[in-house]
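User: I'm new to structure prediction. If I give you an amino acid sequence, what do you actually give back? Let's try with this one:
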Amino acid sequence: MENHEGRPLWVTMTLVGLTLAMTVTFVLLGNWQMRRLTWKLDLIEQVDTRLAEEAIAAPLHADKDDAYLRINTIGVFDHDAYALIQAVTELGPGFWLMTPLVTENGILWVNRGFVPTKRASNKEWTRPAAQQSVTGLLRISVPDGTLLQKNDPEENLWYSADIDALSAARDYELFLPYYIDSFHAGAITDYPRGGMTRVRFKNNHLQYALTWYAMAALLLGAVLYLLWKRDE
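Assistant: Good question. You get back a string of structure tokens that encode the predicted 3D arrangement of the chain. For your 232 residues, that looks like this:
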């Protein structure tokens, strides 16, 4: 059997079936993005709440669900074992100064803050001695490096805070599995400049969901058009 335009019925029905399948797929993708939107909004609310809470004692263990907790610990910095992690901030290009803090529970790596490139080259930053109280945000280890640049422990080149690799490179056996982004300590003009953690979460899930739903609506319209033209 053929329609009035000479196109076999099976061709029309195949097109209708494929279009309906794609419509359902797009709706499901839109629903997934809506679930992601709910998750992201809950995460933002949770982090905002954590940022307003009082600091707690540094835990022995942490995972991604503990990110951005305000924590506090006491220890002595091992300044000779520092590492510089390449960074670009609102103050320009430079490095995050990662320094191990010797605590009663082992080594806890501390991102003491940002150091501009020139100061980093000349090692121009403060080195507080004796026991220090450190307060900041709990951050989760970032293994390997970035998408474009990989950490090179042998050359002491770092592009992410990979706690396992940093500790292995310094022969630390007992260390905590996360690090602290410390708040700024000392004079406002001192380096490293702490307290520069950017707590921002990209949230385009609603936009993506509406896009998938719009595509589903267009495809559904195409199905109705095909059926209408066949029945003319």
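You can read the tokens as a compact description of the fold. Here is one thing that stands out. The mean pLDDT is 87.
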